[in-house]
Amino acid sequence: MRELSKGDIPIIILEILDRQPCHGYAIAREIERQSEQVLQLREGSLYPALRVLEKDGLIQGDWEIQNSGPARKIYQLTAAGKTELHKRKQAWQAYTQLISRILGDDNARNTA
Amino acid sequence: MQETQLESYLCSLKSQLKSFSPAEREAEIREVRQHLEALIAWHLQQGQNSAEATRLAICQFGRAERLGRDLNIGKQQNRFETSIRWVGQGFLIWCGLWLAELLFFSSMNNKPTDVPYYLSDRVLWAAVLATAALFCGHFYDKAMKKRKASRVCA
Question: Do A24 and B35 touch (CB under 8 A)?
Fold first, then answer.
């Protein structure tokens, strides 16, 4: 198990909500499931991140009545959220490519 | 036992949410309660007893003080930005009123010289202050993001 960095939580939330609207508990389970139980987070830390994303208009949370049980707050991505996710994914990919290139060069140097 | 532990956690969290309105606080607690109850149910399914399931769920969720502090920080930033925007909008309205008055006097007398000379200065200053106040929120937001990013790097 590896603790998920606080700074990486927003982009992961956006990605999960891009696939389907979810409530907080489902987002936490989805992170565990998609990382094959490797990434773990302090589940309470989801909520400050959700509030920031809501405030920035990237996601929208609404209390919805369920078929069984009490109403739950379901979050979904907004149009601005989709654009932001696309931007953040591009920036993330550029960053990881850069790091990989540096580490790749380093490996090549070591093996030489 | 389960009830007491859970209630005491939620009570502690509730007391931390000082920047929230009562309705917002209730909604926040309701959501956290649902999340914790789902976690407890999962631990019970795994064969834990009630007290242990609650303890594990709370542990997994994180300390109430820390969560409360993080939620408050976001809320306080919201309030600051909102108040800055209100100040900016206030200045803009003031600026608009001065301009309207200036135009009114000019059209009434058809003598721009009748208008006190300092009016244009005031309008200009109001516009500068309004712009500064409105942009202040934007730059504050940027500075906070930069600070957070540097913390992550550190």
Answer: yes
